[in-house]
């Protein structure tokens, strides 16, 4: 008995997402509507790229933080923000069921600079 923490981290090169800004199929397969709204409300392309890359990194960091997850359905793991701008993860579909069934909660941190976006996720599993 006890509580368990696991962590995940991911770094991505922002430039890798340049073509994706105009790839409707990819965007709609990977990002939630709320994420796309946040990404595209930025008024310059470099901020859009930072945001899209950071969200991609957050989804991969989530997957790394949860060793018992077998598949990552990217769109079901989304980044939202509180009123201070602090990011947090929200879930839908099968991923939401998995998170609830396993009593998991998460903390997310994001940074982007110098052409890189990095996300870290802490996963907390309440086991008693
Ligand atoms: C929140 C803050 C630390 C972000 O740092 P930054 O170096 O500007 O930017 P980073 O690339 O490292 O981080 C950006 C990410 O921080 C996250 N973030 C924003 N507000 C946050 C908050 N209150 N708490 C935690 N994370 C936050 C966001 O996820 C953001 O990325 P996103 O927009 O893609 O979601 C910074 O804006 C801030 O408020 N600093 C407080 C000190 C300050 O006001 N300094 C300026 C006066 S000198």
Q: How would you sum up this structure, described in words?
A:
With 128 residues, the chain is of the alpha+beta class. It has one domain: Alpha-Beta Complex (Ribosomal Protein L22, Chain A), CATH 3.90.470. It is built from 4 helices and 5 strands; from the N terminus they run βαααββαββ. The protein has helices spanning 24-30, 33-40, 45-65, 93-101, and strands spanning 3-13, 77-81, 87-91, 104-113, 116-126. It has a 3-stranded antiparallel β-sheet, covered by helices on one side. A two-stranded antiparallel sheet has the order 2-3. A hairpin with a 2-residue loop joins strand 4 (104-113) and strand 5. 33% of the residues are buried. The protein binds coenzyme A. Coenzyme A is lined by residues 51, 54, 84-87, 110-113.
- Unreliable stretches (pLDDT < 50, length at least 5) are none
Strand content: 25-35%
**How many β-strands, per DSSP?**
5
Bound chemical compounds: coenzyme A
H and E string: EHHHEEHEE
Shape: globular
Distance separating the two termini: 6 Å
From the helix content, strand content and strand pairing, which structural class follows? alpha+beta
* Main beta-sheet strand count, sense and barrel state: 3 strands, antiparallel
Average of per-residue pLDDT values: 94
Helicity, as a percent range: 25-40%
Tell me the name of the CATH class.
Alpha Beta
């Amino acid at each position: 008995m006890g509580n368990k923490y696991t962590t995940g981290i991911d770094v991505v090169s922002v430039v890798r997402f340049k073509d994706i800004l105009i790839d409707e199929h990819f965007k709609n397969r990977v990002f939630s509507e709320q994420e796309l709204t946040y990404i595209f409300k930025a008024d310059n392309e470099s901020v859009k790229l930072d945001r899209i890359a950071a969200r991609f990194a957050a989804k991969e960091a989530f997957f790394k933080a949860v060793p018992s997850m077998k598949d990552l359905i990217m769109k079901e793991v989304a980044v939202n923000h509180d009123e201070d701008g602090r990011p947090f993860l929200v879930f839908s579909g099968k991923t939401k069921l998995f998170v609830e069934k396993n009593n998991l909660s998460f903390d997310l941190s994001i940074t982007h600079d110098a052409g890189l976006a990095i996300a870290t996720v802490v996963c907390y599993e309440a086991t008693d």
